[in-house]
């Protein structure tokens, strides 16, 4: 941007056509960072002191003096410079009279597929790099699949290192055609092929004298002219509500960023939940009312009718309605070393909405890792790191969304682990899973409140968790007796007993343990709904599953009671002889021995059975229930 | 400081409090409109998700733009968080009066924290060196203030174009219980979905200006008529040239070396912070328009005037791992 003058009276003169975001796809050796470095240097967007630092570092790295190492402009982190690879997404910016560019340089290393997905998810365009001498790398193809999956619109096939093949037109034509055919199967809006050499700059910004046969644009020319008009503008209006604010007059303002379409006062707005409608009264801002707002704008909307709208609701305009269902058909990308576990409850974030959801079933999958080992065909296995697979998800409440092919921002989501808070997967929504459609909750005339009134106490789940042999069942049994003596209505769910019936199809694998607790939680919830105090004794080693049960019932109804008995004490007691068999290797995956136990972070009660009798501990539970007002 | 800056702040305050109409109204143009919309969405997302957020305010132009965006994001309500300035005791003397006047004019809560241990020890960049000074007065001061406030999230005005390790940081960036940044454990951040969840002990840093450049900031300041500290504009100031850097002799705490005597020169500052660590540039840009013009033609990055970045090769990344913003 050197030497460019602007007129402050019309800031539109700079970057007038908004923002174009692009990314690169390819392996470590395909020269991605070098190409991007060359692009921004030749486009005049690098500061001289950055360039000077790179020149200094280039000399250190290449004592023979091969010239400037352009990739150093992008390889930012210390660890990466040591390894000579880009391990994360680096963002760079440059601006022309035409538009502002946001460049997300994605990692070329195979371990970092998740960062590639991060970079591509907001890109309008991707540059697919092909080494003219070596041919198409598997990594370029994997990245191309990810780019298409997360919604990139435009593909540029950049055949790099043309100098190594003497700028031979036939080499370029063969590679370009091969790549074009592979791209055609994906959903790109446009595909462009360019022969270039990043180290010398041929066809990067400036036209190459070595490729007179190339009639198309240089890379930079193409970036300047590609149609950046957002397809989101043409889609139906969607606004995920982030916040509800109050005006000075007491009216409500719905704040959020328009995912697609446009809006003006007078437009009809629908809310999928409950199918309510209203009209836009005003588009308000600190600078005064706006006549219109477009996809991408952050707005504050006032409606002409008071509807009960909360954060996470989706305001919709005319045209096709979004889907509203609890059963989702999706494609998932696995980001976690620990896998996405079937049946485990995750937080699903879509737009501004967060719901609890779990995988009901996995479908076919692919794996994107360097070993090229085919993924498992076992549909109950966890979705591993770098795997992409179809899945059916079940949400605890209906989710309003669009198919990803119709809307990038209302058709995408992430899954978050409740215990670690990590993002374990990203997904795109394909549609409603048939089986879930049409099933809505039936409202009942006799309610939980009326049952509570009849019972004379509140319902609750007393969830005893701890190692095998900790004393959970013994204490739970005493608690139930004491409650019964007080006239309370109770039921006892015992892990061992349920495994003989309801859970008889389940073993002790992590996935089966998750399903075991899920079922137990659902059963306990039914008893709470019936107004009972349910004592539950389950090892329940995973915090995420215990939290999921907590979320099934109302606040204050779930009591996590941690029976904290040291492993040595449990193993010495060994009432069922299980520890002996676990230590001898006869039983695998035994909690505390060769399987983890995640102790509760903030339980309602901790009981130490190593130092107190079961009777005293049971009294402590009763006291806790009195304090909480469950019994009185 | 010239009195017209205070008049400007008061006019701005009346406008942002809805007591007068803006001259610069309506959505911005081109890429500034997209950048503003993204930042407002990030601020709203953070405001909706955190229990006790705080916005770091350094008095510089980026922080002041962040403050402006926060007012816009939550209007007609006030931002649901206070602003926090970590005072190193060595800032340019014109900065604190600007901060106080702006906070009062806008009616926002401004908290100021000083590392009192550092004050007692008399930590000085001239005596203890820039590395130790920054560690004590900035990093430790920040960590103290975050712990004292019990904040679960802190917003900062950092931009990805400032420095190479910043270029790789997520918009919602998790800090471990020691407030350190682990670049290898960054969460994937797709589409417009920011994962705000925290494991026990973790906190979040949120960077709403990640995708802005220095030029964008100035264009936006011009478009929105946001007041900034006058040190950003060229004026005759007493400076000495030391190790190739133009340092302003802002008060009598600066020991002059043999042969140094302050000269009046037309200089301005591209970044503001501690005056002993902030190099000026020779410039004739006395107006906002001239500064924007200069921004679009300049050939060196703004951090070339920040002395702490030169401490060693990957110094910013190291500081961030240790908790620096």
Question: What does it look like?
Answer:
The complex is a heterodimer of chains A (632) and B (325). Chain A is of the alpha/beta class and 632 residues long. Chain A has four domains: 11-229, Rossmann fold (3-Layer(aba) Sandwich); 232-316, Translation factors (Elongation Factor Tu (Ef-tu), domain 3), CATH 2.40.30.10; 323-436, Translation factors (Elongation Factor Tu (Ef-tu), domain 3); 448-628, P-loop containing nucleotide triphosphate hydrolases (Rossmann fold). Chain A has 15 helices and 26 strands. Chain A starts with 18 loop residues before the first strand and ends with a helix. Chain B has 325 residues and is α/β, with parallel strands linked by helices. Chain B has two domains: 24-214 and 316-321, HUPs (Rossmann fold), CATH 3.40.50.620; 217-310, no CATH class. In chain B, helix 1 (3-16) packs parallel to helix 4 and helix 7 (214-224) runs antiparallel to helix 8. Chain B starts with a helix and ends with a helix. Chains A and B meet through helix 2, helix 3, strand 2, helix 4 and strand 8 of A and helix 2, helix 3, helix 7 and helix 8 of B.
SSE inventory with pairings:
The complex is a heterodimer of chains A (632) and B (325).
Chain A: E1 19-25, H1 32-42, H2 48-61, H3 78-83, E2 90-95, E3 100-105, H4 113-121, E4 125-131, H5 138-149, E5 154-160, H6 169-184, E6 190-195, H7 219-225, E7 238-240, E8 243-246, E9 252-257, E10 262-263, E11 268-271, E12 276-283, E13 293-294, E14 298-303, E15 314-316, E16 323-334, E17 346-350, E18 353-367, E19 387-401, E20 412-416, E21 423-432, H8 448-455, E22 460-465, H9 472-485, E23 490-494, H10 495-499, H11 510-529, E24 533-537, H12 543-552, E25 558-563, H13 567-573, H14 578-583, E26 605-607, H15 614-628
Parallel strand pairs in A: 1-3, 1-4, 4-5, 5-6, 22-24, 22-25, 23-24, 25-26
Antiparallel strand pairs in A: 2-3, 7-15, 8-9, 9-14, 10-13, 11-12, 12-14, 16-19, 16-21, 17-18, 17-20, 18-19, 20-21
Chain B: H1 3-16, H2 30-49, E1 53-56, H3 61-74, E2 83-86, H4 95-106, E3 110-113, H5 116-121, H6 125-149, E4 153-155, E5 172-175, E6 203-206, H7 214-224, E7 235-242, E8 245-248, E9 263-268, E10 281-282, H8 288-295, H9 315-321
Parallel strand pairs in B: 1-2, 1-4, 2-3, 4-6
Antiparallel strand pairs in B: 5-6, 7-8, 7-9, 9-10
Helix pairs in contact in B: 1-4, 2-3, 7-8
């Amino acid at each position: 941007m050197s030497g460019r003058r602007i007129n402050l009276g019309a800031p539109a003169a700079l970057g007038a056509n908004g923002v174009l975001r692009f990314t690169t796809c390819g392996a470590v050796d395909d020269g991605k960072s070098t190409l991007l470095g060359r692009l921004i240097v030749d486009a005049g967007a690098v500061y001289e002191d950055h360039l000077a630092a790179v020149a200094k570092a280039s000399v250190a790295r290449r004592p023979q003096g091969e010239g400037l190492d352009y990739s150093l402009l992008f390889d930012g982190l210390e660890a990466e410079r040591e390894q000579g690879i880009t391990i994360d997404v680096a963002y760079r910016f440059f601006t022309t009279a035409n538009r502002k560019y946001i460049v997300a340089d994605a990692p070329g290393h195979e371990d970092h597929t998740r960062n590639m997905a991060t970079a591509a998810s907001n890109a309008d365009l991707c540059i697919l790099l092909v080494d003219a001498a070596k041919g198409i790398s598997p990594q370029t193809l994997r990245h191309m699949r990810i780019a298409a999956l997360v919604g990139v619109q435009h593909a540029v096939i950049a055949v790099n290192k043309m100098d190594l093949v003497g700028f031979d037109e036939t080499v370029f034509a063969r590679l370009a055609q091969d790549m074009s055919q592979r791209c055609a199967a994906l959903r790109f809006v446009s595909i462009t092929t360019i022969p270039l050499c990043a180290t010398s700059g041929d066809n990067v910004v400036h036209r190459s004298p070595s490729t007179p046969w190339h009639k198309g644009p240089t890379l930079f020319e193409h970036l300047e002219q590609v149609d950046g008009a957002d397809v989101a503008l043409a889609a139906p209006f969607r606004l995920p509500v982030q916040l509800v604010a109050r005006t000075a007059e007491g009216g409500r303002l719905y704040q959020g960023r328009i995912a697609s379409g446009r809006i003006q006062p007078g437009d009809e707005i629908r809310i999928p939940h409950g199918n309510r409608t209203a009209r836009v009264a005003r588009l308000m801002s600190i600078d005064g009312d706006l006549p219109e707002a477009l996809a991408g704008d952050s707005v504050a909307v006032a409606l002409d009718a008071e509807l009960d709208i909360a954060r996470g609701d989706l305001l919709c305009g005319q045209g096709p309605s979004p889907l509203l269902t609890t059963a989702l058909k999706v494609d998932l990308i696995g980001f976690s070393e620990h896998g996405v576990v079937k049946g485990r409850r995750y937080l699903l974030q879509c737009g501004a909405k967060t719901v609890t959801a779990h995988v009901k079933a996995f479908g076919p999958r692919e794996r994107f890792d360097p070993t090229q080992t085919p993924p498992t065909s076992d549909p109950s296995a966890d979705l591993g790191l770098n795997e992409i697979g179809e899945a059916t998800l079940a949400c605890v409440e209906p989710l309003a969304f669009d198919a990803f092919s119709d809307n990038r921002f209302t058709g995408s989501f992430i899954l978050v682990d409740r215990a670690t808070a990590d993002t374990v997967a990203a997904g795109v929504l394909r549609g409603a899973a048939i089986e879930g459609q049409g099933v809505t909750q039936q409202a009942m005339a006799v309610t939980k409140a009326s049952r509570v009134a009849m019972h004379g106490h509140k319902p609750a789940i007393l969830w005893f968790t701890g190692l095998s042999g900790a004393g959970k069942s013994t204490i739970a049994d005493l608690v139930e007796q004491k409650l019964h003596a007080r006239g309370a209505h109770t039921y006892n769910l015992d892990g061992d007993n349920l495994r003989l019936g309801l859970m008889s199809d389940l073993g002790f694998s992590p996935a089966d343990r998750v399903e075991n607790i899920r079922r137990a939680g659902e059963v306990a919830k039914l008893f709470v709904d019936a107004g009972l105090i349910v004592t539950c004794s389950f090892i329940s080693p995973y915090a995420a599953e215990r939290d999921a049960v907590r979320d099934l019932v109302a606040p204050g109804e779930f009591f996590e009671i941690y029976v904290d008995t040291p492993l040595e004490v449990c193993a010495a007691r060994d009432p069922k002889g299980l520890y002996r068999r676990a230590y001898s290797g006869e039983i695998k995956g035994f909690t505390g021995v060769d399987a983890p136990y995640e102790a509760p972070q903030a339980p309602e009660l901790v009981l130490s059975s190593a130092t107190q009798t079961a009777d005293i501990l049971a009294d402590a539970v009763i006291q806790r229930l009195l304090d909480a007002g469950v019994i009185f | 400081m010239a009195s017209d800056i205070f008049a400007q702040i008061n006019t701005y305050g009346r406008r942002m409090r809805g007591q007068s109409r803006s001259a610069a109204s309506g959505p911005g143009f081109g890429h500034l409109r997209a950048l503003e919309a993204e930042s407002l969405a990030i601020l709203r997302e953070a405001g909706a998700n955190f229990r006790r957020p705080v916005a770091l305010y350094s008095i510089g132009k980026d922080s002041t733009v962040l403050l402006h965006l926060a007012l816009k994001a939550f209007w007609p309500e006030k931002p649901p968080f206070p602003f926090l300035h970590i005072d190193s005791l060595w800032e340019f003397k014109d900065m604190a009066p600007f901060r106080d006047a702006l906070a009062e004019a806008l009616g926002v809560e401004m908290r100021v924290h000083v590392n009192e241990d550092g004050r007692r020890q008399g930590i000085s960049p001239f005596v203890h060196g820039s590395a130790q000074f920054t560690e004590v007065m900035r990093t430790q001061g920040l960590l103290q203030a975050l712990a004292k406030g019990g904040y679960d999230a802190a917003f900062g005005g950092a931009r990805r174009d400032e420095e190479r390790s910043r270029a790789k940081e997520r918009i919602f960036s998790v800090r471990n219980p020691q407030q350190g940044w682990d670049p290898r454990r960054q969460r994937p951040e797709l589409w417009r979905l920011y994962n705000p969840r925290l494991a026990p002990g973790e906190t979040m840093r949120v960077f709403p200006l990640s995708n802005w450049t220095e030029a964008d900031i100035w264009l936006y300041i011009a478009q929105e008529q946001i007041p900034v500290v006058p040190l950003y504009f060229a004026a005759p100031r007493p400076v000495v040239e030391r190790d190739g850097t133009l340092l302003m002799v802002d008060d009598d705490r600066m020991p002059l070396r043999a042969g140094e005597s302050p000269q009046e020169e037309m200089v301005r500052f591209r970044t503001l912070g501690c005056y002993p660590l902030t190099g000026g540039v020779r410039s004739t840009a006395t107006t906002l328009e001239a500064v924007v013009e200069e921004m679009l033609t300049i050939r060196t990055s703004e951090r070339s005037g920040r002395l702490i970045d030169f401490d060693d090769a990957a110094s910013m990344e190291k500081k961030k791992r240790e908790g620096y913003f």
